[in-house]
Amino acid sequence: MAEEAKVKLIEAEEVRQRIAELKKNSEDMAEYIKIGERRENLAKLENLQAQGDFWNNQNKAREVIAATNAERAYTVPYDALLKTIEDAQVMFELAEMEEGEARQVAFSDTLAECDKADQYFSKLRMQSLLGGKFDQCNVFVKLHAGQGGTEACDWVAMLYRMYQRYAESQGWKVEEYDTQVGEEAGYKDVYFRVEGSYAFGMLKAERGIHRLVRISPFDANKRRQTSFASMETVAEINDDIDVEIKDEDLRIDTYRAGGAGGQHVNKTDSAVRLTHLPTGIVVACQKERSQHMNKEKAMNMLRAQLYEYYEDQKKAEMDRFYGAKSENGWGSQIRSYVFCPYTMVKDLRTETETSDVNAVMDGNIQQFIESWLQMKASEK
């Protein structure tokens, strides 16, 4: 008979060191995120909101609320971290008073509380990497099939599912705007919006070319195929950011939205496609049954894309004079997903990799996002 597995005893020193490490990490984090300054800023912002004339200027009020939420994004998890560490300390002190099995159970519960503190710390660490101007914003995403024909269209569908699963894990909402289906499978293009705290800050790490290597399910000879798909991200900008769109620069096309057929088929030209003639930027929305609503959503997406377009132009002009190195996001592949002859997902920018390709396709991409954000932070 096989020997029964022995239960590892938890020593008091192990728990004591774990709590001491959490305390040290919390002190370092407080200094790094300047928690004292954030508390002062938060108090001032909350005082502004308590004033009777706060809503007289709605644009200013929205700015104050956004700034308040930004400070709370740090102070709330930091306070939760401190409270959890304090609870773990009390639990440990009580556990030391126990004996035998009760002592082991109490130590185990204390370590579980330490695990909870680690989660708060991880959230703060991620927050500290997201300090961009629009990182807190929602994001518009476009997936586009590249080289690979039907295989590439299927790859877009796989990526779309991956990002949907990732959004679910973050508690974000995904709103599909428009799709162009492939001739045999998948999508040529997918436009969608992700709504949630720091959606743009996270998903901007995914912008670039994604490469797939696998045995094609569409090839009768079962040959290995390589396919490409691109991923674009644009922050959904606030209403108070002015982007001029002249009527004469805009071409508006309406068409019948796709549907499942039967009683649900759309019998009116409710879908809207907007083309900005000077830049060639095209956006579309067919989600809503109302043409007016589809146009409004498409205009929001166009405003966001035009803002980024003009900002990119300014940056390119600065690069001409100062020689700054601009990121070549669209000219290079950022990640490879290999299904055959071995399994591996590797980010070529950070060298982060995993062999669990199925988990990645189920939305487990946080490790790649964090590695990229840490790399960009270290460059600064």
Short description:
By secondary structure, the protein is of the alpha+beta class. The protein has helices at about 10-30, 35-50, 60-95, 100-130, 150-170, 200-205, 290-320, 355-360, 365-380, and strands at about 140-145, 175-180, 185-195, 210-215, 225-235, 250-255, 270-275, 280-285, 335-340, 345, 355.
Topology:
Blueprint: H1 12-32, H2 35-49, H3 58-95, H4 100-128, E1 139-145, H5 150-170, E2 173-181, E3 187-195, H6 199-203, E4 208-215, E5 224-235, E6 250-255, E7 271-276, E8 281-285, H7 291-322, E9 333-338, E10 344-347, E11 353-354, H8 357-361, H9 366-379
Parallel strand pairs: 4-9
Antiparallel strand pairs: 1-3, 1-5, 2-3, 4-5, 6-7, 7-8, 9-10, 10-11
Helix pairs in contact: 1-3, 1-4, 2-3, 3-4
Describe the structure.
The protein is of the alpha+beta class. The protein folds into three domains: 12-128, Release factor (Methane Monooxygenase Hydroxylase, Chain G, domain 1, Up-down Bundle); 139-236 and 332-379, Alpha-Beta Plaits; 247-320, Double Stranded RNA Binding Domain. The protein has nine helices and eleven strands. The chain has helices at residues 12-32, 35-49, 58-95, 100-128, 150-170, 199-203, 291-322, 357-361, 366-379, and strands at residues 139-145, 173-181, 187-195, 208-215, 224-235, 250-255, 271-276, 281-285, 333-338, 344-347, 353-354. It has an eight-stranded mixed β-sheet with strand order 2-3-1-5-4-9-10-11, with helices on both faces. It has a three-stranded antiparallel β-sheet with strand order 6-7-8, covered by helices on one side. Helix 1 (12-32) packs parallel to helix 4 (100-128) and helix 2 crosses helix 3. The radius of gyration is 25 Å and the shape is globular. The N and C termini lie far apart (59 Å). The relative contact order is 0.09.
